[in-house]
Specification:
This protein is mostly helical. The protein contains twelve helices and no strands.
Length: 210
C-alpha cells in the first residue's frame, strides 16, 4: 500500500499525447478496477498513465479520490485529474472543475472551476454542461446569467443528465432564463424523476403532479 502511495505521488515525466483508443493493458486494468481488484489494477493504470494515457490518469485520480487501493488523498487526485484534463479527457476536466469549486486537493478557485467545467462542456459532457449552467445561475466564476444557465441546462438535459433535466424544469417553472411554462416544466421534471432523480420526484409530489 505504501509503495503505491509513493508511486502515485510522483510526477509522470515526459508525458506523451493521450491515446485515443484503449490498449489491452487499459482494458485489463479497467476490468480489474470494476471487479474491485484495485491493488492489481493500479500498476497497470500507472504504467499507461506515465505513457500519457488520459483515461489511465483519470482512473488513478479516482483511486486517490475515493481511496480505492490507496489511502484517500484529494491532493494526489487533483494532480492526476489535472494531467488527464490537460490531455483532453472530458470527465477529468469536469472532475477537476469540481475540485476547484470545492477546494478539494487544490485551493478553491471559482474562475478555474468554471474554466475546466466549460472545457468539458465544449466536448459535450452532459455533467459538465449542467455544472456550467449552475455556475451561470449562481454567478460562480462567471457573471450571473440566467438565460445562459437555462441554455446549458437544456444541453445537459438533452444529453441525458437528470440534474440538467431537473434544473431546466425548475427554470421553466419559475420563468428564470426562459419564459414561464408549467407544461414544459412538468415534462422535464418528470423525465428527471423517471431517471431516478430524488429531488425531482419530491418536486412533483409538492406540485401534485403524480
Amino acid at each position: 500500500m505504501k509503495t503505491y502511495a509513493i508511486i502515485l505521488s510522483m510526477a509522470a515525466a515526459g508525458l506523451l499525447a493521450s491515446c485515443t483508443t484503449q490498449s489491452a493493458a487499459v482494458r485489463e486494468a479497467q476490468a480489474l478496477y470494476n471487479a474491485g481488484q484495485y491493488a492489481q489494477a493500479i500498476p497497470l493504470f500507472l504504467k499507461e498513465a506515465q505513457a500519457g494515457n488520459a483515461e489511465s490518469q483519470l482512473m488513478l485520480a479516482k483511486c486517490c479520490d475515493f481511496g480505492h487501493g490507496v489511502p484517500q488523498d484529494t491532493a494526489k487526485a487533483a494532480q492526476w485529474y489535472a494531467k488527464a484534463a490537460e490531455n483532453g479527457n472530458a470527465d477529468a476536466q469536469n472532475n477537476l472543475g469540481g475540485c476547484y469549486l470545492d477546494g478539494a486537493g487544490v485551493p478553491r478557485n471559482l474562475q478555474t472551476a468554471f474554466y475546466w467545467y466549460n472545457r468539458s462542456a465544449e466536448q459535450g459532457n452532459a455533467k459538465a454542461q449542467n455544472n456550467v449552467g449552475l455556475c451561470y445561475q449562481n454567478g460562480e466564476g462567471v457573471a450571473q446569467d440566467e438565460a445562459k444557465a437555462a441554455q446549458y441546462f437544456q444541453a445537459a438535459a438533452k444529453g441525458g443528465n437528470t440534474n440538467g433535466m431537473y434544473n431546466l424544469g425548475r427554470c421553466y417553472f419559475h420563468g428564470t432564463g426562459v419564459p414561464q411554462n408549467a407544461e414544459t416544466a412538468r415534462m422535464w421534471v418528470s423525465k428527471a424523476a423517471a431517471g431516478g432523480h430524488k429531488n425531482a420526484a419530491l418536486f412533483m409530489q409538492d406540485q401534485g403532479w403524480n
